[in-house]
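Exercise 3.2. Students should predict the tertiary structure of the chain below and write it as structure tokens, then compare their answer with the key that follows.

Predict this chain's 3D structure.
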Amino acid sequence: IHLQLTQKEMSGKSSIKPEAVSHYLEVINEEVDRLNRIVVDFLFAVRPMNIQLEERDINRIIRDLIDFLKFELEKGKVNVELRLTENLPRIMIDEKYIKQAFLNLIQNSVSAMTEGGTLIMETFRKGPDVIVNITDTGKGIPEGIMDKIFEPYFTTKEFGSGLGLTLVYKIVKEHMGEVQVHSREGKGTTFSLSFPVPQKEKRMLRDAREDG
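Answer key:
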């Protein structure tokens, strides 16, 4: 619809100022990006997940993703705080799927902070798990829909696919992990993802404590 309106407006003008061209190109880019996200979410949702588990450093993945999203975060006036615990045990994950889950959550956070805000990415060890918390200072999730947010095709966005959080839940579960949500309207939201530490890493940590 946006592209059709832009084309209609441009077709009636014999000359267009550079700033107008820039505006139209921005509209087109945003529309293409929106459609691309819908297609990607849909493909991830309908295809079987062929999870290929490999040991990975979760902190490195987060840093890479934040660097990749730098322009989008700056455009949304989002300040990023990385609270990453060093020397965490490596966990068994499929990097491409975990990046997609983090990407969906970060983009949700940016959308919730319409006037800018703070995005906090936090990692730490808790018992047998590595925890990743993604917190924003956005508008929060109404209590009345908290039990629906992971349902397929449920969305409060005008142009959302309703698959973003469904995919997050599916990906984390495929990694034998858990997802929890804590939110307060007007204050913000935290998605807490837990991933089990491989048995080998647990033994190494136990042996190190015994040797100490």
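Discussion points: The CA atoms of residues 82 and 89 lie 18 Å apart. The chain has two domains: 1-46, 54-200.
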